[in-house]
Design brief:
The structure is a single chain. The chain is an alpha+beta fold. It has helices at 7-20, 26-35, 42-55, 70-78, 81-84, 87-98, 122-134, 165-173, 209-215, 221-227, 244-256, 287-295; strands at 58-60, 66-68, 109-118, 143-146, 156-162, 179-189, 192-201, 230-240, 264-266, 278-284, 301-310. Strands 7-6-8-10-9 form a five-stranded antiparallel beta sheet, with helices on one face. A four-stranded antiparallel beta sheet has the order 4-5-3-11. Strand 1 and strand 2 (66-68) form a beta hairpin. Helix 2 crosses helix 3 (42-55) and helix 7 packs across helix 12 (287-295). Residues 11-75 form the Ribonuclease R winged-helix domain. Residues 85-314 form the NrpR regulatory domain.
């Protein structure tokens, strides 16, 4: 087998093993790769796995499947970074497509992020989340605590928070083409947004922009929630200018269902580059909840875009 010709498939296998962080067998890997446009039989995947074993990048865990070795983790991080550009937005767009929420009936699925924290920090993290919601800096006015999700480690509780990509799914189902353009940090003064300090385009990054801002310590969400002054996370979406009135009607219906957007809409708003043919929709991110908990030093881990779940699981205040 030529590794040069098959490199993209090898990298995809390594990426999946890193993403799931649990043993995966050839059958499951074949299914996951098919979701990303790689059509391989179980036997073909097994062939690649044997090669990766020989390279020292993977190892078998009994009959459960393969996991990455230390060398495999390092190789995944540095191998063809350009292959991973756009992965985040592709994942979010997939969740948007699967979001079936209907703001008129309050039914259907929404996209969500999954976080988990140690048992002894659940109440503290809940309080941190509530601070953001009460200050009007969240995307949605509720969250769900779960204890029976297999992705949540022992000794931890999970938090499901609604992902703002849900909005994209709603707009698409109404026939409005929408583009998730940027993630950024907005400066607030007396609870009023002044403008973006920084923006990162979703289509040119290998990591989620908002998670990057949180980890870099560039937010002051807790301060903003308490005093009205600080920096918080927000997203910028773009729709055709002719769709602005329709978006406003949809946003009004979604606010009745507990959603909190938009912050503002228009061309060139909050120092976003102007486009005479497109309207920018600025919304606070659901990641502000997670960011506030992170700022307080809590041991919170988050999977962005963890899946889709019925809207009805969230209890509105």
């Amino acid at each position: 087998m030529s590794f040069v010709r098959s490199e993209r498939k090898c990298i995809e296998i390594l990426r999946l093993l890193k993403e799931y962080q649990e043993p995966l067998g050839a059958k499951r890997l074949s299914e996951l790769m098919a979701e990303h446009g790689f059509t391989l039989t179980d036997r073909a995947v097994q062939y690649y796995l044997s090669y990766l074993d020989d390279m020292g990048f993977t190892r078998k865990v009994g009959n459960r499947g393969r996991v990455l070795t230390t060398a495999g983790i390092s190789e995944t991080e540095r191998a063809l970074v350009d292959e991973r550009i756009g992965f985040i937005i592709s994942k979010l767009e997939k969740l948007a497509f699967k979001s079936t929420f209907n703001p008129e009936t309050g039914t259907g699925n929404v996209a969500y992020n999954l976080s988990y924290v140690p048992y002894d920090q659940v109440e503290l993290v809940s309080k941190a989340f509530d601070e953001v919601i009460d200050a009007g800096l969240a995307f949605f006015s509720s969250y769900k605590i779960v204890d029976n999700d297999p992705r949540v480690p022992a000794g931890h509780s999970g938090f499901m928070t609604v992902c703002s990509i849900t909005m994209d799914g709603v707009l698409q189902r109404k026939g409005i083409p929408v583009k998730m353009a940027f993630g950024g940090i907005v400066g607030l003064n007396n609870s009023k947004p002044l403008g973006f300090h920084d923006l990162i385009g979703y289509r040119g990054t290998t990591v989620d922009p908002l998670l990057l801002f949180i980890n870099a310590g560039l937010t002051s969400i807790g301060k903003a929630a308490k005093t009205g002054n600080g920096t918080v996370l927000a997203n910028v979406r773009e729709v055709p200018d002719a769709a602005k009135d329709s978006v406003e009607v949809i946003a009004s219906k979604m606010r009745e269902m507990g959603f909190k957007f938009p912050v503002t809409m228009g061309t060139g708003v909050l120092n976003v580059r102007p486009d005479p043919y497109r309207t920018s929709i600025v919304s606070y991110s659901g990641m502000n909840l997670i960011g506030n908990a992170y700022e307080k030093g809590y041991s919170i881990k988050t999977e962005i875009g963890a899946g889709n779940i019925p809207y009805s699981v969230f209890d509105l205040p």
